[in-house]
Design brief:
By secondary structure, the chain is of the alpha/beta class. The protein is 38% helix and 15% strand.
Length: 425
């Protein structure tokens, strides 16, 4: 289906054409008409399926077709909430690109940078705000933003926001908005917590799925290489060199390992950078820019820092460590195989991670191909050790929907967890 068949305005069609797009993706075909009608939406969409345009284009058109309500025409009319800085920057760029021929101002606000320029921009008046929950609450407490004029709210990557402990922040933000707004919730997975959130905040929503529930993108080739934990870095360097990989995104579970692995790969002669929540926003932006233009060959990232990374034609994603939450595997490998292109997702799995792999395969409802690399055969005499960081892997045993085994998102978490997540975002 062409964008011109979806009822979009001439200005928006001109913008999509300038971006080089004519045909709408499945999520765009399903979401845009419902959003234009003013319906609330619960949408399941993997990363790389075009979901950002799927809500940005109709959001802009609805603003175009309506007048601001209330006496203050400079109030924020649309709010897009995202879990991380990188995703906020990516969505803000899409809003600017698709709205280039419309008279709307937008602002992107997130932590890790000075708040004062954001305050100045908000005081000048903006129609659309793209924000992470923590920094948005800071602005609300300072009185530099009001949300009572918001007509449309978008929760993008809502499942990740719940995982990061943002549920209390989201509730506070929603309480400050008018009740008759339009709500759009996008999530890569439909966990019980997501459905609970939808029941709490959405009004008779349309439910759509761009692909099968919790199924990874078909264009991605997935493989597991069993290997001893102390030989993972050696195998990774071997694969990068042997395959002459020029661009590879590598995931670790912790910031500490991301730094250490980046240093080790650098000593192996590979240009490498690490991004994680402890890095400054400037350092993260530079590392990503260098990676995109080819100055950095290997980018090592934690899950939180990698949210929102939009790297065109990224050929390889490597799970140096499997994630503790099976759904995060879907998010990780979705960095490749974007926009219909082929990609490869490789997981280096040691004996400690076998239970995590079983949980991922249960979630996907499929076995992932196992290939032992000659010379890197795992030592079967090595016994599994508990995974010390993150959640205890025992909690995932015997249930493919791991998050249903723990308390609802945010329940029982102290303020310290929320603060850690907000700082990371």
């Amino acid at each position: 289906m062409l964008f011109s068949e979806l009822g979009l305005s001439a200005e928006l069609l001109r913008a999509t054409e300038k971006q080089g797009y004519q045909e709408a993706t499945p999520i765009q075909q399903q979401a845009i008409p419902h959003i234009l009608e003013g319906r609330d939406l619960l949408a399941g969409a993997q990363t790389g399926t075009g979901k950002t345009a799927g809500f940005t284009l109709p959001l802009l058109q609805r603003l175009q077709n309506s007048e601001p309500q209330g006496h203050n025409k400079r109030r924020v009319r649309a709010l897009i909430l995202v879990p991380t800085r990188e995703l906020a920057a990516q969505v803000a760029e899409s809003v600017r690109d698709y709205g280039r021929y419309l008279p709307f101002n937008s602002a992107v606000i997130f932590g890790g940078v000075s708040i004062n320029p954001q305050i100045s921009q908000l005081r000048r008046g903006v129609d659309i705000v793209i924000a992470t929950p923590g920094r948005l609450l800071d602005h609300m407490q300072r009185g530099s933003i009001r949300l009572d004029g918001v007509e449309t709210l978008v929760l993008d990557e809502a499942d990740r926001m719940l995982d990061m402990g943002f549920i209390y922040d989201i509730r506070k933000i929603m309480q400050s908005m008018r009740s008759d707004r339009q709500n759009l919730l996008f999530s890569a997975t439909f966990s019980n917590e997501i459905k609970q959130l939808a029941n709490e905040f959405l009004n008779s929503p349309m439910e759509i799925q761009a692909a099968g529930q919790n199924i990874t993108v078909e264009q991605i080739s997935q493989v597991v290489h069993p290997v001893d934990r102390n030989r993972k870095r050696e195998l990774l360097s071997h694969m990068i060199g042997e395959g002459n990989w020029q661009q590879v995104l590598v995931f670790t579970r912790t910031k500490h390992l991301a730094n250490r692995l980046s240093e080790q790969l650098g000593r192996d002669g590979l240009s490498t950078a690490a991004i994680h929540g402890n890095k400054s926003q400037g350092a993260r932006t530079r590392a990503l820019a260098d990676f995109k233009k080819g100055d950095v060959r290997v980018l090592v990232a934690t899950d939180i820092a990698a949210r929102g990374l939009d790297i065109q034609q990224l050929p390889h994603v490597v799970n140096f460590e499997l994630p503790n939450v099976p759904e995060d595997y879907v998010h990780r490998i979705g960095r490749t195989g974007r926009a219909g292109l082929n990609g490869e997702a490789i997981s280096l799995v040691c004996v400690d991670e076998r239970k995590l792999l079983i949980d991922i395969e249960r979630l996907l409802k499929q076995d992932i191909r196992k290939v032992i690399i000659p010379g890197y055969e795992p030592d079967e005499s090595i016994r599994a050790e508990p995974i010390k960081n993150g959640r205890n892997q025992q909690s995932f045993r015997g249930n493919h929907n791991s998050r249903s085994r723990r308390a609802p998102a945010g329940a029982g978490r102290g303020r310290s967890q929320s603060q850690r997540s907000r700082r990371a975002a």
